[in-house]
Amino acid sequence: MRLRHVKNAFEIIENNRDIAIENPEEYKGRWRESFNKPQDSSLSVEVGCGKGKFLSTMSEENKNDLFIGLEMMSSVICRAITKVKEKEITNCLLLNKDCEHILDYFKEGEVDRIYINFPDPWPKLRHEKRRLTSPRFLEKYKTILKEDGILRFKTDNLDLYNYSLEIILPLLKDDKRFGEVEYASDTIMTEFESKFKEMGNPIYFIEGSFK
Ligand SMILES: C[S@@+](CC[C@H](N)C(=O)[O-])C[C@H]1O[C@@H](n2cnc3c(N)ncnc32)[C@H](O)[C@@H]1O
After folding, report:
1. 120 assigned to active site
2. Residue nearest atom 10 of ligand 1, based on CA coordinates
3. Under DSSP, is residue 135 helix (H, G, I), strand (E, B) or coil?
4. Measuring CA to CA, how many Å separate 99 from each of 10, 48, 102?
5. Which residues constitute the domain of residue 146?
6. Ligand 1 nearest atom to the CA of residue 116, by list position
7. Is residue 119 within 6 Å of ligand 1 at its C-beta?
């Protein structure tokens, strides 16, 4: 069952290479021109985009901008690919890649916004390096974000929030914002966010641009 599921995921990825970019290194520094967007259009990246609800909705609502999601699990990203394909979205690309190598895919200062939505908390200290808000990942985000580009992180995990606050806040400019999310009726939510919110969990965020 598991094998068949994975085989199906690989098929979905292989059959949709217009969306599921195989060699993102080839587009480094050229994403906008390669996908017919003006140089002044906004490029947003979601790391660990999961099944793509947030990214596909953002893409639909901001057709002039480009959205790119990284997700290392093929069995998960295939759901995002199917969503984007079925909705005929043309400004959303998906990379079945580990965020570890993000510097190979985006040039210095190329990205306008980075979203880290409900990343795995990796609670054990020996796994700290895997947290998508650990210092080594933040260093990479800072490199690819343009001056005044925005980093936004959301989680329902209080320990991860507190860990991230301590690391991220000193790196951000004074106009940073953080705390518990106050929802507006039109907030675009991720899969995990809808689930946690329905359960009544408080959701925390950190947003700002690097110094
Ligand atoms: C808890 S899920 C959240 C998914 C989605 N952002 C949401 O809010 O619904 C975290 C996702 O991040 C992915 N992920 C974790 N570490 C990653 C990495 N280093 N590179 C790419 N994806 C990663 C996982 O495979 C998983 O699908």
Report:
1. yes
2. 119
3. helix
4. 19, 8, 5
5. 2-208
6. 6
7. yes
Instruction: Match 């908390």 to its residue by tokens.
Output: 121
Number of domains in the chain: 1
CATH number of the domain where residue 197 is located: 3.40.50.150
Per-residue pLDDT reduced to its tens digit, 154-205? 999 999 999 999 999 999 999 999 999 999 889 999 999 999 999 999 999 9
How many degrees, rounded to 5, is the angle at CA 20 between CA 17 and CA 22?
Answer: 75
Cα 13 to averaged position of ligand 1 atoms, centre (Å)? 17
Ligand 1 centre and the CA of 120: distance in Å? 6
Q: From the centroid of its chain, how far is CA 26? A: 20
Model pTM score? 0.96
User: What whole-number distance in Å separates Cα of residue 47 and Cα of residue 45?
Assistant: 6
Does the CA dihedral 24-29-32-36 come out positive or negative?
Answer: negative
